[in-house]
Task: structure prediction
Amino acid sequence: MLPGIYLHPMAKLSILLFFNFCTLILHAQNDILVLKKGDRIVQYFYKDSYISFQLNNREWMKGIINKIENDSFYFTKVMVRYYTMGSDTTYVGGYHFAVTDIFSLPKRGVQIDFTDERFSITRNGGHQHWYWIKSGWLFRALGIGYASLNVVNCIIDHDFTHLGSKLGIAAGAVLVGIVLKHSYQLTHRRSEKYHLETIKVSGNNPVLQ
Result:
């Protein structure tokens, strides 16, 4: 306190509370990265939070947001390699992406892991349960396999009498697989429906509740 200046204890308390309140507000305010469907928030990410996303070149990335600015963010890639006796984590910083660099983000529950020296969607957990059926992969594989088997058998037996009907069944299975492939999505793709933006909010902003 300045010499020669006397402040009432209640005044001292008020000044202390005022500066604490200002400090709290400054720390509470922060830029965030938001994925919206129309005006509804689907996902949001703060500084120091983990994020997974796919770039426009279809490369997956996973790591930590270091800083968020207007329509862009700084990012550190985090690669975890698993071994029989443990794991090893590598951090590579210095990345800077604009929101327009992002092609898609995984839906909640969809996990991105680092395998074979690249990031990819893990097919055995969360929304990925029954992936091989839901995505239509099994129907396409069975259809192609069934068609190939019957063609080979007809060539061996020199009998093509029922080949047409069997190929029709195979084609039906492949068609079901194609329809499922286009209808089953594990990601939110940036589009007219889903869009990314950065906004500044306070810690008690009701938009995030």
